[in-house]
Amino acid sequence: MGFLGIFLGIIGVGIGIVIGLVLGFYLFIYSDPQNEPFEDPIVKPISELDTTSLQDLVPEIPLWLKNPDYDRVHCAVWTHCLQGVDWLNTFLLNMWPYLDKAICAAIRQTTEPIVADYVGQGHRPIEAITFETLSLGTLPPIFQGIKVYETDENQLVMEPAIKWAGNPNIVIVVKISFLRIKIQLVDLQVFAVPRVTLKPLVSAFPCFANVVVSLLEKPHVDFGLKVLGGDVMSIPGLYPLVQDIIKKEVAKLYLWPQTLQIPILDSSLGAVKKPVGVVHVKVIRATKLMKMDILGLSDPYVKLKLSGEMLPSKKTTIKKKTLNPVWNENFKLVVKDPQAQTLQVNVFDWDKVGSHDRLGMQVVPLKILQPNETKELTLDLLKNTNVTDPLKKQQRGQIMLEVTYAPFREDSDVVTGTLNTPTTKENGAGFSGETPIGAGVLLVTVQGAEDVEGEHHNNPYAVIIFRGETKKTKIIRKSRDPKWNEEFQFMLEEPPIHDKIHIQIMSKRTRMSFYSKESLGHVVINLADVVYNGRINNKFHLIDSKNGLVHVELRWRET
């Protein structure tokens, strides 16, 4: 019976194979796909997709969307040869033993509180999870190339191609009751192309305030996992499952547009702060001021300024021959740090000849103000802020103010590039279809110029003309590529939708010459684009200049 059973089984397998091949061939040749039911694909707007669908879609997004300058930046260069990054790989090789210890220490410190949640809690059988061995090995990651972008923003963008075929020695011991299970990570290989952004660039060492890291594509991670000496990754179907889980978990954290931001410098050590709001100050009146004139009166006026600002102080009118002046005058000052800045209030006595005497002063911390809530203040005037000054307690009168802090609305999208003329509403990045109507501040930052050349001298400076008001940057001597990075503020009661701003690059002689001033080119910018987009950062071609460019950042911040 045994031999007969085997023989019949072989015959059955042979007949089954023949019948299966014939049936498959028939279906392949004679089946009509047109008669098969066809389901229309489900189409959804991106805004309706869930998190998992979006993460699957991100790798398919073209590079020109992930980086708008990708197909327009001509100075971005891949360094494929090892010579371009040889110094970086050599540096990493020498530093790797020390980096290994530092990274492993950070891993231990980070994982301890996470592991504690799974040990000895409730009826969980896990008694301990510890690292028996933790080392990243002797082989450091290798930079295979670096792509560097030059942008109009105050930042440096790099995309290094990193490959790590390491030999780590990582052994985790899990103790469950009387069992002691060893889990070992072996044959680790990682390939990733992160985008590293150093921003903003500042004058304090190491010359950037933050490092922002994101992944443009899901990284390739390959490794082996041994449990009790056996390679569990060889189990059919487990390897692709683990790979998919790792890629999805990493994508949730760092896949573009998600980022990892690492602060390097404290914000007070050189990072350039952007305006975040406006403080409205109404100087109402003062009472019982000090007598400074021979007749027992004073000619008071008030100066207002925010701490940390280099801009000129705001001034009230002068009230002649009074100790109880009434002003009822309104002022606006741009705020950059409401938690740290203070409003400095100084009352002076005007003198026709000589310096003006200070009658008293006071400071108001902006952090005591609630957004969009008016606060009435009655302040005792002091001689100064020195608490040890014996004359500080002398009565100098009081001043009454109404102060309101109005934060700006959130930033809109950004338009950047090099333009012959400004962008229009149709191609604006942040155009929402709504016409802004509120008051705000127009911020004009003249970053610099390129290829400006005069016939007689090259000492360029920029002149900003807006609504009859003229402001100037400093003069850069003997330069065709000046860098100013100077900001100018224009407080407005309504959006400058129908206004234009005129920026002219001039050159001024620094020694005796018949040609005292010379125009190096100019540009006229339509501010409607700035209002609708919120911010535009462009290099504009200068009119009446052969190759000249001026780099200007324009912001409209509405309160």
Automatic annotation (TrEMBL):
Q: Does the keyword ATP-binding apply?
A: no
Alphabetical GO biological process terms = lipid transport
Q: Does the keyword Transport apply?
A: yes
The record gives the membrane topology as: Single-pass membrane protein
Which residues belong to any copy of the C2 domain?
256-379, 423-540
Q: Which GO terms describe its cellular component?
A: endoplasmic reticulum; membrane
Per the annotation, which location comes first and is thus the protein's main one?
membrane
According to the entry, every stretch annotated as the SMP-LTD domain falls at 81-265
Give the matching SUPFAM superfamilies. C2 domain (Calcium/lipid-binding domain, CaLB)
Superkingdom, according to UniProt?
A: Eukaryota
Pfam families listed in its UniProt record: C2 (PF00168), SMP_LBD (PF17047)
Which keywords annotate this record?
Calcium, Lipid transport, Lipid-binding, Membrane, Metal-binding, Repeat, Transmembrane, Transmembrane helix, Transport
Q: Which Gene3D superfamilies match?
A: C2 domain (2.60.40.150)
The residues that cross the membrane are 6-29
Return the InterPro entries for the record: C2_dom, C2_domain_sf, SMP_LBD, Synaptotagmin_plant, Synaptotagmin_SMP
What subcellular compartments does it reside in?
A: Membrane
**What is this protein's name?**
Synaptotagmin
Species name: Lactuca saligna (Willowleaf lettuce)
